[in-house]
Amino acid sequence: MPESKKTRGQKKEWAKLLYTRENCLQREIAEKTGMSAVTINKWIKEGGWQKLKHSLLITRETQLSRLYMQLDELNTAILSREEGKRFADTKEADTISKLTNAIKTLENDASIADVVEVGKRLLNWLRPVSPEKAVEVARIVDDFIKSLLT
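The structure corresponding to this sequence follows.
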């Protein structure tokens, strides 16, 4: 009996959750979902799940904290120099600029993890209300997240 697209879509969504959030191995995902390991591997590659998995591991707050520590360490090193030499050289100024731009971006833009979390909450709310719409919205959210990864 052929598998319906809805069932396949639900399995794909479950596989994605198992891979990105539960840290399951591909063979475990294949066993749990009833899909082949080849299919799971294809979904991971085509969907950019590896990048998504990594982006979910580092929260925006963690990344911001690391960037602030790097900026502080660089500024501390510059300020520890003898008087008259407490300024950034070209490489340091470039690094400071890049760090401050990265901080500004993280402070103002939603991270992929934020988008995934909001999408997940929306789908959890929508599923009991309208399962058919939830499947449709899940595809749209997935496409949006993929666009952010490229």
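The CA atoms of residues 19 and 25 lie 7 Å apart.
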